[in-house]
């Protein structure tokens, strides 16, 4: 409750500091082979490493979900929390967990970023075979529904890792097939669709970034991958191994071969080099953000917005930047039954307003946020999902 009473400049400082702790990297050693080094926070705007969360030499406290107790793992095998070959990472902000899988293993690990405790989720759903590189999982991201999703190299398994209470449940959603328009830019062929990483958008879709720089949009309803283009503006030999959405709604990509981070506009696929560290070997990236999360409906003013739409801290941002908006605007929040559960007036000066609204007493679930002007005209309707 006290957060929304802070002076506005302190709120912005807090938001920026928080943003640097919700973008994470799976970092490897400077080696021609995949060799795990650590998980760390990254400042995605400046390309600078932050806090180290967990390393290859950290003391691993592993709790087995199926055996309901602590376990000691053999570090000489592929089935351990600090395995050498890892290329997947997702972030669950609602529990402050990093989720990952070793490449040669079906084990799923959930690392709490604060306590450093690890939950081992054994599962018989992932069919990983050591000698079949196509079966290894190299792409992972949190979906807009809060579950973790992972895709293997060939797209023959699309996993959903959901949480029920304190238990994780793994399910296989099926095989992802090619869209008929893909042509030579195949999702399933190694040269064009192999490896890389994935992100999610606010509509429930996923975007897979292959190591070669090809980008595919995966529809979860149809289980099809459609080629939408190739990233431009990166070096010819740049291997795209990590991707995650930053706080501005753009995609940040990174390479296991080292080099700079790049920011990619998902609409144009044009990449822009970021400043900061130039030789990070990143196998995967993860964040709390989603593509298209700030997109407004077609009948709304493009310069009036509400974000984030997946709300895990009971705060939403309201931005107005439109000279035609006079006086104040009214914000109404409705639940799925149409009941008005929150009303608040927001002042607008010279067509500009930037405010935060605290969604007090709202339980987890979906809501419609409506912004109207003084005449009652609807300026924006937007769905949000509140989590606890």
Automatic annotation (TrEMBL):
Residues 1-19 form the signal peptide. Keywords: Signal. Residues 306-385 form the Secretion system C-terminal sorting domain. It comes from the Bacteria. It holds the Pfam family Por_Secre_tail. This is Por secretion system C-terminal sorting domain-containing protein. It comes from Chryseobacterium profundimaris.
């Amino acid at each position: 409750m006290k957060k929304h009473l802070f002076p506005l400049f302190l709120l912005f400082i807090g938001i920026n500091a928080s943003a640097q702790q919700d973008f994470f990297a799976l970092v490897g050693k400077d080696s021609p082979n995949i060799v795990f080094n650590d998980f760390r926070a990254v400042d995605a705007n400046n390309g600078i490493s932050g806090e180290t969360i967990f390393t290859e030499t950290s003391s691993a406290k592993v709790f087995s979900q199926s055996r309901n107790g602590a376990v000691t793992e053999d570090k000489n095998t592929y089935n351990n929390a600090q395995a050498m070959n890892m290329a997947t990472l997702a972030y669950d902000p609602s529990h402050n967990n990093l989720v990952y899988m070793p490449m040669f293993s079906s084990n799923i690990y959930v690392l709490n970023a604060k306590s450093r405790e690890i939950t081992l989720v054994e599962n018989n759903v992932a069919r990983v075979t050591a000698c079949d590189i196509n079966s290894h999982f190299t792409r992972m991201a949190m979906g807009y529904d809060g579950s973790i999703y992972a895709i293997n190299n060939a797209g023959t398994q699309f996993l959903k890792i959901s949480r029920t209470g304190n238990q994780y449940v793994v399910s296989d959603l099926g095989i992802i097939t090619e869209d008929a328009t893909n042509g030579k830019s195949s999702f399933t062929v190694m040269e064009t669709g192999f490896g890389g990483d994935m992100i999610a958008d606010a509509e429930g879709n996923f975007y897979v970034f292959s190591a070669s720089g090809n980008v595919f949009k995966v529809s979860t309803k149809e289980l099809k991958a459609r080629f939408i283009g190739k990233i431009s503006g990166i070096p010819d030999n740049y291997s795209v191994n990590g991707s995650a959405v930053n706080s501005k709604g753009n995609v940040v990509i990174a390479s296991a071969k080292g080099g700079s981070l790049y920011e990619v506009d998902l609409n144009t696929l044009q990449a822009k080099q970021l400043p900061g560290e130039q030789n990070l070997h990143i196998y995967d990236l993860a964040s709390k953000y989603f593509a298209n999360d700030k997109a407004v409906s077609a009948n709304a003013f493009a310069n009036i917005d509400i974000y984030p739409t997946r709300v895990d801290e009971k705060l939403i941002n309201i931005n107005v930047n439109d000279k035609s908006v006079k006086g104040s605007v009214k914000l109404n929040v409705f639940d799925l039954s149409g009941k008005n559960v929150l009303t608040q007036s927001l002042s607008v000066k010279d067509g500009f307003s930037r405010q935060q609204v605290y969604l007090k007493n709202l339980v987890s679930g979906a809501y419609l946020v409506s912004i109207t002007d003084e005449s009652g005209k609807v300026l924006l309707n937007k769905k949000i999902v509140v989590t606890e």
